[in-house]
Amino acid sequence: MMDTGERVSGECDPRFEAVKSEFKRNFTERGEIGAAVCVYLDGRKVVDLWGGQADRETGKTWQEDTMAVVFSSTKGLAAMCLHILIDRGIIEVDAPVCKYWPEFAANEKDAITVGMVMSHQAGLPVWQESLPEGALLDWDFSAARLAAEAPVWEPGEQHGYHAVTLGTLEGEIVRRATGMKIGQFLRKEIAEPFGADVWIGLPENEEHRVATAYMDEPNPNSPLFRKFMEEPGWIGAKMMTNSGNDMALEIINSRARHAAEIPAAGGIVTARGLARAYAPLSLDGSLDGQRMVRERMLPLMRTTRSASSCDTILRVPTTFTLGFSKTWGARSLGQGEHVILGEHAFGTPGMGGSIGFADGDARIAFSYIMNFHGPGVGLNDRGQSLVDAVYRAVGYTSSEPGFWVR
């Protein structure tokens, strides 16, 4: 086991010493390879820790500026872009997607609204037609293919996790409405103004900072995995089998995928950058004199738009706002099958256990990233232990099986 006393670096306000303790335990007891955690409280950074290995084979250590692929934690960054456009009146939540993207109306999708897309209700959770190798690296191809398909359920009548298609839908709405790719919009409107080290589409000169990703074995007890094994012809199985081989480890760690814009599953960030992107949303929509959105937008970000005791795709309870996740599942479901936050917190977890979120009640912004991606679709013990320690530090208690309350 690694000597965390020497390998964990950074700063931690004494009030959050338990966060540092849990972060060390992740390495000594929970199989962590390399990771970082960052917390803002009242717009001030109070935890900024990193440690372990960015690459296990070479022994390269995780540095202050090491970045990692955060899979679906990227969805929160994409949602921020949409909310900026909503706030400015450039797009409308209840407008049909085809208002901005005319080709999207094909196959009776003319009534699908921006809000249905953002809340996983559009009925386009997967690409139904087989995708060729590397399809998700070709934006124009993957977007056009999705626009041509028919929904697999009546839009707005149910919801199911749009694991990768969500980003393509949101990204193309941004491109049609602004003329900018979503990665460019993210840099212009969020990353650069707020000094947030977050990327959707990484330039080559930043590649050296990316940690090598490692994947755990699938959890055979996961409801999603069991459904997949029992019904291989089930539509949700295509989330795993029809991605153009995007989930192969050699693809995940490739320069081509890092450079591609995959707004639902391809973001590359530092923990500090992701927490800083959420920090304005833990306050009034602004940070250090720079405004992301007007305060009136925050209820829209945190209010539940779709919820179910059994997500059509993930097969566990899920709750979504416009573009973000809230608390869902329960600890009793096991590792990777829940996300336990504050009642009004919103953000997005990523496959393997990363997360970024804001909680305006607790006035915290949080991020945790790592390069060893565990099983399941939510948080595992590494990330949840850090979230729990943060909430305890600010005076919250757990209302098992619900959420953290003051």
Automatic annotation (TrEMBL):
Tell me the InterPro entries matching this sequence.
Beta-lactam-related (IPR001466), Beta-lactam/transpept-like (IPR012338), Beta-lactamase/esterase (IPR052907)
Q: What's the protein called, per UniProt?
A: Esterase
Q: Where is the signal peptide?
A: none
Show the Gene3D superfamilies listed in the entry: DD-peptidase/beta-lactamase superfamily (3.40.710.10)
Domain Beta-lactamase-related, by residue range, is 24-378
- Taxonomy, superkingdom: Bacteria
Taxonomic source organism: Henriciella pelagia
SUPFAM superfamilies on file? beta-lactamase/transpeptidase-like
For this UniProt entry, which segments traverse the membrane? none
